[in-house]
Write a structure and sequence with these properties.
homodimer, 291 residues, Farnesyl Diphosphate Synthase, two-stranded antiparallel ribbon, 2 strands, globular, (2E,6E)-farnesyl diphosphate synthase activity (chains A, B)
Chain lengths: 291, 291
């Protein structure tokens, strides 16, 4: 299935859930504003991509699980932008949800996007035991043992010098667990043995880590071009990032080594189950930084 | 099982989920502050009470479902109190969550309480199909088709003259669905026939409605004693409440008639399944207003 077809299935799942429903229309407007804010749908796409690599025939129920994941991601962006949090007026060149609809509505839109996705999964056409596993892991990845804990740790670490380990813990929770969920969810849906599920989840975690390191590196190299001075000097004063902690070259090497580990783990899984890794390796390689 | 034993099971379920876990300790502190803020545990108690009336032997898994419901209720109170919402400094005589921990932490504590409960139910020792049903209905009762929609409608209706029907729609969503959930959840756990599940849910909805009408009536009669003038005059100018729309006497009659309907529905169910309604009728009667 082509990428566009996969993304279309995800859009349908979101549209079916929010488009037709008779509920507070201003809430729906606010929710859909952020759902359609131009996100790249990285997480839902990865879920369907990994499923297909595992030779599972993709069906609408899988897109509903992918859409549920995107809903939680979107809710977290709305709340992150709030005045009490990052206080951002724009995201992707458009007004943030609270600038457009007011703070109260933005809080409630985020709340809805946290509470709704579980019904979407629970009502999907999949075996009950699989749905229970998917729900348990999505909840654990996003709540007080996952994303929300990561946001708290990030907030508290803002004006402190963090160790590499502390930085990794923050990212593993704040962004890593929802980036690993597509791999975890695909493994659950494909009913892989628990041992292989763990390996596939590890691939997701490694990709999530590389994603964050790359993001930090690109931030630095971008600002280097903009401000026209040596980034290393700024880095000393900056808040904790991988380049700040490791130096730029070392951070690039760390990103690429993490991707090597992801590839090695993928290769390992292909020895155990039918797994067409080509498209996943392509995703991995797209994150590699040329030194 | 005595009321205290039931409540102790619910406290254990909450404590087991939040007490032992290694996660951001400040987040846990903020979450537990509101969990232990002196709420009466009406919803979880009702769930276990109805289960027992249906002759189901209560076990810890049922208390976990009840605790999940209380978590969502608590999260909604934290977000309701935020400056952008009702802007309350105190709840039950204690500082509200954001006054104690700051707005950012209060937003995140509420988020955690919306995201976590689904893992708690998913991991409970119950059959998968039952857990899927419980999760679907809790999500629908709380998200953009339930509680959150009700909050939006309530917010939008604040400075408007509402019809009785509009007022009922607001309350049915804002508070009614989470008050009906204990009945719905007990019916799911007891594996009652769908037709009887609907009847039991209706009992919960009627009790939820009476609860709200009673609340409005008590507000008025309290303020009558305080301000020492005829409430009817004030009511004309007040925001929409049942006494404002119906008059005080009529509102009292409406509350009591609604309770009569709940009792009649309970009686109907006893004709179809073993159901010891005594303790539920006691709850119903505790809401009756003596004219």
């Amino acid at each position: 299935m082509k990428k566009q077809e996969k993304l279309a299935l995800v859009e349908s799942a979101l549209e079916d859930f929010y488009g037709d429903q008779q509920f507070a229309s201003s809430l729906r407007e606010s929710v859909l504003y952020s759902i359609h804010a131009g996100g790249k749908r990285i997480r839902p796409f990865l879920l369907l991509e990994v499923l297909e690599a595992l030779q599972v025939t993709i069906k609408p129920a899988h897109a509903q699980v992918a859409a549920a994941l995107e809903m939680i991601h979107t809710g977290s962006l709305i709340h992150d932008d709030l005045p009490a949090m990052d206080d951002d007026d724009y995201r992707r060149g458009r007004l943030t949800n609270h600038k457009k609809f007011g703070e109260a509505m933005a809080i409630l839109a985020g709340d809805a996007l946290f509470l709704d996705p579980y019904a979407l999964i629970a009502q999907a056409d999949l075996p009950s035991q699989i749905k229970v596993d998917l729900i348990a892991n999505l909840s654990l990845a996003s709540g007080s043992l996952g994303m929300v804990a990561g946001q708290v740790l990030d907030m508290e670490g803002e004006h402190q010098h963090l160790s590499l380990e502390e930085l990794q813990t923050i990212h593993a929770n704040k962004t890593g667990k929802l980036l690993a969920y597509p791999f975890q969810a695909a493994a659950i849906i494909a009913e892989l043995a628990p041992e292989i599920q763990v390996k596939l989840k590890t691939v997701g975690e490694l990709i999530g880590l590389a994603f964050q390191v790359r993001d930090d590196v690109l931030d630095v190299t971008a600002s280097f071009e903009e401000i026209g001075k040596t980034p290393q000097k700024d880095l000393q004063a900056e808040k904790s990032t991988y380049p700040a902690l490791l130096g730029l070259e070392e951070a690039i090497a760390f990103c690429n080594q993490t991707l090597d580990q992801a590839n090695a783990k993928l290769e390992e899984i292909t020895q155990q189950v039918p797994f067409e890794t080509e498209s996943i390796v392509k995703v991995v390689e797209s994150l590699r930084i040329n030194a």
